[in-house]
Amino acid sequence: MSGRPARPSPQVMESLARELRATLGEEAVRGDAATLDAYGRDESDAGVFPPHLVVFPGSTSDVSAIFRLCQAHGVPFTPCGARSGKSGGSLPVLGGVAVSLERMNRLLSISTEDLVAVAQPGLVTGELMKAVESRGLFYPPDPASLDMCTLGGNVAENAGGPRALKYGVTRDYVLGLEWVLPSGEVLRVGRRTIKGVAGYDLVGLFVGSEGTLGVATEITLQLLPLPRVVRTALLSFPSVLHAARAVSAVLAAGILPRTLELLDDVAIRAVDGRSFHFPPGAGACVIAEVDGNVEEGVTAELTSLGEVCLHEGALEVLVAQSETQREGLWAARRGVSPGLRALKRHKVSDDIVVPRSRMAEVIGRLKAIGTELGLTVATYGHAGDGNLHANVLYDSPDDWPRVEEALSRMLRLTVEVGGTITGEHGVGLSKKRFLPLEQPAPLLSLQRQLKALFDPSGLLNPAKIFDDAGC
Amino acid sequence: MSGRPARPSPQVMESLARELRATLGEEAVRGDAATLDAYGRDESDAGVFPPHLVVFPGSTSDVSAIFRLCQAHGVPFTPCGARSGKSGGSLPVLGGVAVSLERMNRLLSISTEDLVAVAQPGLVTGELMKAVESRGLFYPPDPASLDMCTLGGNVAENAGGPRALKYGVTRDYVLGLEWVLPSGEVLRVGRRTIKGVAGYDLVGLFVGSEGTLGVATEITLQLLPLPRVVRTALLSFPSVLHAARAVSAVLAAGILPRTLELLDDVAIRAVDGRSFHFPPGAGACVIAEVDGNVEEGVTAELTSLGEVCLHEGALEVLVAQSETQREGLWAARRGVSPGLRALKRHKVSDDIVVPRSRMAEVIGRLKAIGTELGLTVATYGHAGDGNLHANVLYDSPDDWPRVEEALSRMLRLTVEVGGTITGEHGVGLSKKRFLPLEQPAPLLSLQRQLKALFDPSGLLNPAKIFDDAGC
């Protein structure tokens, strides 16, 4: 241990920059103001933390060399991808070096026979999806940011998305990783086969480690056969409570759609009338999508789902009649987060998961917290999983004390009902002060020991996940 | 670190036994010869290693107290369940205390609304299955030993089974664990919700850690809705190579059955004519099972599968016409391992996984290794996953040098084609000498450091996974 990492001095940075340029070449090391500002931001509301330098490795050995040089100079270094993260996980909070994996963006191979794809971490998730789908294969994890986010970021955060309901999250598809440890040492963990239990499951430990235990430089992913038939329906309800109860009823009826996405009244207002028109009078909507290989089976499943929802008070069941209609519906869903940002000047986005049986109750109590504190609370997201993106909207930074109070109450409620404070966005910077609500001191201490085993200097992505106050 | 663990002296054991009896009560601590012999064996061929004592904790605090007492006396302790393991993972190789979780066998709760079950580790897997199925729910992992193996053992080994092809393995269903660390400290890791990414994925690290990082005392499992329709077919082929190519062709055709189980000629011979008659002239068979909620969809899928197999040279496609026929088929499949044991006096069972595109080639080469060395090699198992149970049968212990040579060649071949030496049985004692074939020294060293972080004294389940020679 060389003590707690700190902001590097200009002298140290100058000397490190020289060595980085000598190793990587001039154009792979940038320190201009616009670049530093851009790499100090992400899609969270955690603030702006410009690094001293941004480096763009082109290979695994570049990444290894960068890590070794940063360690040698005692300079903090923080990997980043598309900077689409929602918890500040790739923000270089102590400055130092931002290590962007975006140039390592090649799709290395797709095997239709093995149902396996191998990619570099900078590959945009949506591009992988398109490439495998053109060969009749399927990569299910579908974060809303799929047109910009990268696989490396998905691995770091264990990204989910609507289809997680039926198909699981990123970790369910990562078979193997080439991994650069904080020391710069390069390992291959996991495998290329569908199953395997040789040794400890380091893939399991690394996926979702939020860039604090090392970085993936090559990712081996399991694929599935692409389902031949997909049917999508929009179900409207008088209120969000009706919708939440219908989601539970669908699952309890033994139906497992691939998505059950919820939009409450505020979320509908955020996107209605732009590219898509929701049914008039809808107090909430659910987007349900069912898939399979046989038309009759898929249609029958969607019909049963519609019947359950009508029984639970659905106003209308509209089935998308074309791929264009279906795409319009999903574009509206993906527009909720940016749309909410446009409704009020500021928003903070939460990402709680609650036991599915408690969802309707929790939504009611989240809304009540907003009412009590005079704040607008939007709830939407992956209701089938119990994963709610609860957003607090506000007009002015002066409202922050009330917003912080709302967040704190919402997360306490979540833990109280047996839920978790983050379903897919990660703890990062935004939620580290709340992690002790969910995890007691001995568990946090064990995780700090793991971090110290992998990163004794603490220079890799410092000040994340665990609150410094608890050090 | 208190040095390398060693066999305890009689004096130390006597003093520990007194304290264990005082803590747990007389009947929870046994040292009679029959019990010690029984707890020195499992379903592997790794040998007999009787412990000095067997203890039967009734609660988490009992487990914690046992671990603390063993640590205080410097006595090795090894957890065990049903002792149905195939890699010797629960054998107390240095003697000491065998900690049997079998009395902690309660099913604590099933929530149909949350799709979650909570159980103690000693619960038999098949009993959990029956209990959840009676409520319309589904726990997919189905190791062949499901009538005797326990959930705690399934967690320790990350058990699979035929249905892993469509539904994944144990780790895909473990949401949360109550976990006793080697020190005796009790933690809760993971969650009760379907998703969650708060902190490092310790559940991922602990599942499959083969009883070397601690023991589960409570297991929270995700369930699925029970598929309403299941159809099963037996497909016979002229040879195992035809069958292997058909398995690949089914998957390449975009069909994802829930099982694609392979039996070669030797495996068929081991069970034919007992409870089940295979089609005459079959050189290999595949048991394919398809499930879903809608009759038409499932039937159509099975029909497509049959057509693909006929195109690949299948002799016959027989669809089970009743639940009795279906059960008979699966009973035959589960009878392969004991049946092979009856064919010759000895067998060693391998558990390799190879990329699916290489399966037919690998089976041919495994058979050739047997022919060259004058040994019978049976190949069967979860062919859809590329997971083959390759068994070497032999008559006399004098054959061991040739058997060892065959095993070594088979595992080298596996690694050479990009496979793994164990798909679901674990490394344990049986395969630790082969692990360096697959994993290089730096990766093994990192895993040893993890083990040392959790278990500095090394007293928990010593001499497993990592070969002592490499210490």
In short:
The structure is a homodimer of 471-residue chains. By secondary structure, the first copy, chain A, is α+β, with helices and mostly antiparallel strands.
Topology:
2 copies of one chain form a homodimer.
Chain A (H helix, E strand, L loop, with lengths): L9 H15 L4 E2 L2 H6 L14 E3 L4 H14 L3 E4 L16 E4 L6 E5 L4 E4 L5 H9 L3 E2 L12 H7 L6 H4 L6 E7 L5 E5 L11 H5 L8 E8 L1 E2 L3 E9 L2 H13 L6 E6 H7 L12 E9 L2 H17 L4 E4 L3 H12 L1 H8 L2 E4 L2 E2 L5 H15 L2 E7 L4 E8 L5 H17 L18 H4 L2 H14 L17
Parallel strand pairs in A: 2-4, 3-4
Antiparallel strand pairs in A: 1-2, 5-6, 6-10, 7-11, 8-9, 8-10, 12-14, 12-15, 13-14, 13-18, 16-19, 17-19, 18-19
Helix pairs in contact in A: 1-3, 8-10, 8-13, 9-12, 13-14
Please identify, by name, the CATH architecture of the largest domain in chain A: 2-Layer Sandwich
Q: Uncertain runs of chain A with pLDDT below 50, 5 residues or more?
A: none
- Class by helix and strand content of chain A? alpha+beta
H/I helix tally of chain A: 16
Main sheet characteristics of chain A: 8 strands, antiparallel
| N- and C-termini, Cα separation of chain A | 14 Å
The percent range for helix content of chain A is: 25-40%
Largest interface: A-B, 91 and 91 residues
Mean pLDDT of chain A: 95
Strand content of chain A: 15-25%
CATH topology grouping of the largest domain in chain A: Uridine Diphospho-n-acetylenolpyruvylglucosamine Reductase, domain 3
Count of domain modules of chain A:
4
Number of strands of chain A: 19
Note the overall shape of chain A.
globular
* Quaternary organisation of the protein chains: homodimer
CATH class membership of the largest domain in chain A: Alpha Beta
